[in-house]
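[audit] Reproducing an earlier prediction to check determinism. Same input, same settings, fresh worker. If the tokens differ from the archived copy the diff job will pick it up downstream; this log only records the rerun itself.
[audit] input (254 residues):
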Amino acid sequence: MIDTKAMAYVNMYGVLGTLENLCAIDEEAKKICAQLKKPVSLCFSVKDGPCCTFHFSREGCRMTEGDAGCTCKMNFSAPEKFNALIDAAKPGMPVKNPVQVLTFLLGPFSKLTDRMTRLLRASEEDLTDRAFFEESTILTLYTIAGAISALANQDPISKISASYTVDGDISLGIKDIAAVTIRVKDNHFTTIKEKAADPRAIMEFASIDLAAGLFAGKVSTINEMCKGTIYLRGMISMLDNINRILDRVSVYLA
């Protein structure tokens, strides 16, 4: 069962949140950003849901919470309406600088999200290209990390696991490739896209190929843990709760 409000948070923090990483590592996305004549800060505000601003410039993309500093804004009357933007490219209501909203949404923004969709929903043929495969896997890690916190804070089932999670930082990553921090404070989860300086728990995958297999559901987590290719250390109860939330992530991102 999927909660539409929780899905809106997954789409904002997990899916669109990955635009930051796409613009940082993908050459096609970098070229799109480099063609921007001036910076654009696009805010998506969802009634009874998330509100975030995506700041685009020639240097890339940065996401912030709230509408501070936005140059244009689009409102959505309900989480379902925002989810329709992601699922069916149905825009909301432009409420600030509508010409810029629509011009950017139908131009650079659509090009970036199309590129991201190709990477996150990669075909078997695309994945035969090793560079594409590695980039797809890394971006999937960032999407999953954003979705973990979104669901821990919003999904009724995931919130149960979150309620049993002690405070501290959890390091989640692929050895020598990429790492993120899941910060827990008073049962509230925050995803930080950098390696934890002092993690209370660590879950690390031995290789990018293993991570891709796990993300695609083609590899047994239990078997890999027994082989030691999934490295676990620290407060294991935190990792148990993360794994339960990951089960929900797979439902929402299916």
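[audit] rerun output stored. Observation attached for the diff report: The longest helix spans residues 130-154.
[audit] end
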